[in-house]
Amino acid sequence: MMRPILSLTLLALLAAGCSAPSHLYRLEPLAHPKGALHPLGRTVVGIAEVQLADYLHKNAIVLRESPHRFAIRENDLWAGNLAKNIQRTLAQELTALVPGRTFLVFPWDEPLTDRYRIYLSIDRFDADEKGVVVLSGRWSLVDMTNNRLVTGERFDLGESVPPVAADKAADLDRIVAAQNRLLHRLARHIARSLRR
């Protein structure tokens, strides 16, 4: 009676051990602030929690196979929460690009109040079957003191990534690197608006 249960357990363990290894991906800031210390600027800008389209709430990386069909890469995962990764990366990018202001990821523990807050909503952040990587959505800057919209706009950024023959892992590396560059382009665009 025990042998069938033991055999099934052993088969399940073997199957789990034979599954493909997972790969973890993370977005990183491309702009690096000069020096190790960054004094707090007088103007505090908060980066609100990033709102992602529902299909991006998966931990697995999602690719677009057609306008209406997605492929979930079960073994290719974001290293942590994608929305928080984008939020932190954007804060670090803006710290490097707009010196003299303090960018904090909201919510924070410091006893500081943000004069301004950046809101970011992402509708699309993926690559299609032709290797076109897209970052699109909307960002806005809100004056928290006067409760008014300062500026904001829709963005549609894209970059083509030619496929690597017969190497899916290399393709995904290039796609995530392109996503990283598109986020950097968005940060540069926001930084220009903040400097006006």
What can you tell me about this protein's structure?
By secondary structure, the chain is an alpha/beta fold. It is 31% helix and 35% strand. It has 3 helices and 9 strands; from the N terminus they run H-E-E-E-E-E-H-E-E-E-E-H. Strands 2, 3, 6, 7, 8 and 9 form a 6-stranded mixed beta sheet that branches. It has a 3-stranded mixed beta sheet with strand order 1-5-4, with no helix packed on it. Helix 2 crosses helix 3. The protein is elongated.
Task: Provide a concise account of the structure shown.
With 196 residues, this protein is an alpha/beta fold.
Give a count of the beta strands, DSSP E runs of length 2 or more: 9
Largest sheet descriptor: 6 strands, mixed
**What characteristic shape results from the CA principal axes?**
elongated
Task: Pick out the low-confidence regions.
Answer: 13-17
Helix content: 25-40%
H/E element string?
HEEEEEHEEEEH
The end-to-end distance, rounded to whole angstroms, is 77 Å
- Total number of helices: 3
Radius of gyration: 21 Å
Structural class: alpha/beta
